[in-house]
Amino acid sequence: MSNSPLTPGIVPGRLPAVAYCEHFDDHSAPLDVHEARVAADRCYFCHDAPCITACPTSIDIPLFIRQIVTGTPEAAARTIWDQNILGGMCARVCPTETLCEEACVRQTAEAKPVEIGLLQRFATDTAMAKAMQPFTRAAATGKSVAVVGAGPAGLACAHRLALHGHDVTVYERRAKAGGLNEYGIASYKTTGNFAQKEVAWLLSIGGITMNTGVALGRDITLDGLKAEHDAVFLGIGLAGVNALRAAGEDLAGVRDAVEFIAELRQAEDLATLPIGRDVVVIGGGMTAVDAAVQSKLLGAENVTIVYRRGRDRMSASGYEQDHAVKAGVRIIHNAAPLRVTGEGRAQAVEFAYTSDGPNGLTLSPETFTLKADQVFKAIGQTLTGAPDGLLISGGRIAGQGPGVWVGGDCAAGGEDLTVTAVAEGRDAAEAIHAHLTAG
Ligand SMILES: Cc1cc2nc3c(=O)[nH]c(=O)nc-3n(C[C@H](O)[C@H](O)[C@H](O)COP(=O)(O)OP(=O)(O)OC[C@H]3O[C@@H](n4cnc5c(N)ncnc54)[C@H](O)[C@@H]3O)c2cc1C
Ligand code: SF4
User: Fold this and answer.
1) What is the whole-number distance in angstroms between the Cα of residue 179 and the centre of ligand 1?
2) Distance (Å, rounded) from C-alpha 268 to C-alpha 332?
3) Which of 3, 190, 210, 220 reaches 20 to 30 Å from 114, CA-CA?
4) What does the pLDDT look like over 125-162, one tens digit per residue?
């Protein structure tokens, strides 16, 4: 180890080799058989269960928990996958504290919900470890559908279409399928190459041809896809990033947080990844939290998230924020960047305090400066590469057009969550199936 957390600048190898393995190990340990039975026994199997309503994919949660209680986790996995084919990933990455577990009656009564996320992981991991593929395709329909983007939305859509007997061709611009499951989600939430294992498992249903390295707008066109296929699904996510709109953002050392996270996710050896000593992350969502926590785990000495509004306005949940603080990240609320300063490269960021009132956000004349040799921009992603002719509203695709369906982050409405993308991809597949088999 040539460097330490105190080494100035942006350098690799700040930690001993063993620390990287420990730091990027599974964020929450999976339940064993006994723990799963104990956790499942806490469920009241509510009638009109609020946890089902709170799940964007409407998984029958009491049913799958009952199946765990009766010692049939494989049946539980089938119940989960019937609604959410990426149930294994969602069990790892869903902010359950704001979804099913927040709605759980045991959360309301005792502030201790049934551990639905961990139980879902137990069921799906158990079934996947047995290479269980419970789905059989319907007889071939002779119809073919193009799916653009192999993220959660595209994968869920492709699987459901294949299940109905259609032939699906997926076009993905990156080298690997998975979308942000592969290139975005924090490493410690999805260890052991799980994203690729889940893609391989999903594709094992058959009928899905995966074409990676093919980009809509560069290698293929929407008109071409419409001519070649009976329907098209667009699940292209949000590939662009917002600018900081602060002076000095072009200085060396300032970079996009999503790009940094993608590099981290693809790194063979985390010790080779350069990280700053003083890292400042600007933003308030999951990307900001993930960039900050992982900077700390890579050995940065000081990591600070700065968000322009208050804690309750951050899109990262309270749980995520607490996780960041526990990891040693400092969070400053109500401050906006004015300029990044430095001689040739970033050395500091100057901020103004803000107040958030009925007239919007106002900057206070009072300022402060944070030392920063590395600055991550995590202030939201934007739609890029949407084909011409589609209705765009609020920076998302709002109109589908004949023969074209849209879902996931690139589509208007809905939250930017893995589980929402899965729900939208699945529902679009059902709509496409109804269209292709009508009359
Ligand atoms: C850093 C980060 C961390 C996150 N953490 C969480 C989390 O912990 N939990 C959670 O629920 N959500 C999280 N999210 C949000 C979640 O990842 C997204 O909501 C989800 O991945 C959206 O799925 P999607 O399929 O719509 O888009 P994506 O996952 O973005 O997939 C879109 C796919 O389309 C491909 N594509 C784009 N343009 C083209 C083109 N022109 N031609 C062909 N292919 C194209 C892309 O390469 C990509 O593979 C996180 C997001 C980020 C950025
Ligand atoms: S709300 Fe909680 S207790 Fe009721 S069915 Fe759902 S998980 Fe079980």
Assistant:
1) 5
2) 33
3) 190
4) 999 999 888 999 999 999 999 999 999 999 999 999 99
